[in-house]
Amino acid sequence: MKIQSGTIAAFLTAALAVSASGVDGATSDVVSGSTSRLPMGLSEVITDLEAEGAGRIATCAFMSSRSVPRGRRSALFRSLFGVTGDGEEDHQVEDGSTTAFGKRMGEDGAGTANGDDDEESGVGVVVANTCGRRSVAEVAASVQACGGSVVYVADPNDLDRGEGLFDVLAPAVERYLASCADDGEGELGSLGQAERKSALLVVLEGGSAAEMAAARSKFEAAAAVMLSSIVQPEGKRCKALQEVFDRVEYVPSTVAVHELLCEMGGSGTDPATAACAVSSAVTDLEKSGMAASCGLAKPVDLAAARRLGDASHDALKFVMSTVEQATTAEDGSSAQLVPDFGALCDAAVKRAMEDFDAQAGSLTKKSAVAKRIRRDLLEEIYAELADLYDIQLKELRSATFGSFRKGLSQLRLGPNLPDEMNRVVTESVAAFVSQAKKLRAHGRGVSLSWSASDAAASDFRRELKEFSTDRLNKARVEGKFRPAPRKGVAIGLHWLLPKPFGNDYRQDPWNVHAKDNLVYTPPDKITDVSKADVKTGDWRKSVVPNPTGSEMIYLQ
Length: 556
Fold this sequence. Notes:
Layout: H1 8-21, E1 29-34, H2 41-51, E2 56-64, H3 70-79, E3 100-104, H4 111-114, E4 123-129, H5 136-145, E5 150-153, H6 156-161, H7 169-181, E6 199-204, H8 209-229, H9 241-244, E7 247-252, H10 257-263, E8 268-269, H11 271-287, H12 290-293, H13 299-326, H14 341-360, H15 363-366, H16 368-409, H17 417-439, H18 446-449, H19 453-477, H20 531-536
């Protein structure tokens, strides 16, 4: 396998060059979409593109890591491939239902770039949507059918934790490496598929070069661990992604990926070769025993898988459409707060599960696979509703903040203004916590995927505190608020000793012997110093406080 490497700057420059020369003035419209099961749905799109005159076909599988939100994934599914909604067939591209779609890039898009002047004009891009309710076997077969070309969206949280990145990509890499080692008809190791070049486009969040480099380092470190643990064909083991794919690029989420796929030399092939790869992938999927890989050892399990697959998809679609309709404003421009969002979710889920159970019949009692499908369906529904729950929390926070500001505006500018503002903060946080409890559903899987409201309440309290402090400081600077002056504090000292400061010679002079008759007892019984001593001597040494008891000082 030939290894190619390149920087993002060179990659984007080449893509711009192709768009300026090879696809100058060309259109980029959705031609066809499919809702059939993968990888069979790719054949329909390839046939439609060939009928539209596409001489070369570039295929890829769209994947994402575990923590990518459904709304974000749906937006990227359209924006990365240039689906703006302005085209006549753009409505066929929907993340929840579309399994594959194709775009025709215009005239002389691939023939000029690759020097194949005899090829039919135009190049088509076929995208397999492996996200959503797809089994691991389907995803792996889709990557094989696409010749190992993958557009992968990595979530920053998964990159930081190092988890959830390769839940589905690792089995797909195993299947792809096994197909490359097989030289059977239609296999990626055959002569007919030899000219196809695989590519891994990793879409990362972050615009600066430092952020992209850090995210790339984390992804490659996790990929090295993944490659060391998967099953690989005999011979030299791949230790890095560059040894698995012919080209590995890391691009931001603003890049037009479909143009980059057309720019890559060898990424496209003729429609017959692309269709042959899809047929080979379907054959391998059947030979490997998709039913056995899912644990379908009994006929009842196989029947449950066939019947309940579409039923679970319909149940998920019903719940999401019902809740989204209730939480969207009438004009459809923004979301609106639903006070009883949790009860709404539980009611919609209950209705969907009743319809699911009606279609399942007795299968949920007889088949372990049916029970697992039902359990997984509940968890997936509430996981998808988690995004709408976060939106409702934001709407509640915005509404409560508006009420908080209204409460502050009704306060009088007095000396007790800080206490009144703290009271409004406490009341607003209590109202937020009380209302947030009604937004939370109580079904299975809520605790696993729905964020805790305690953290939101703590963050909301901090925001209100900061806002009230800023308002108070502003009022103080403008002179509208003056704090009340502090009152003085009276301190009383009470001595319980009979003689707290000790004895002196004026209290009991008859018990004190002093030399030179310095201390005497006058008629009024008040000890004093003579007038002569006052005039001539330092009388202050004669009248001093003294401690009581054994420490009494006598002047002899």
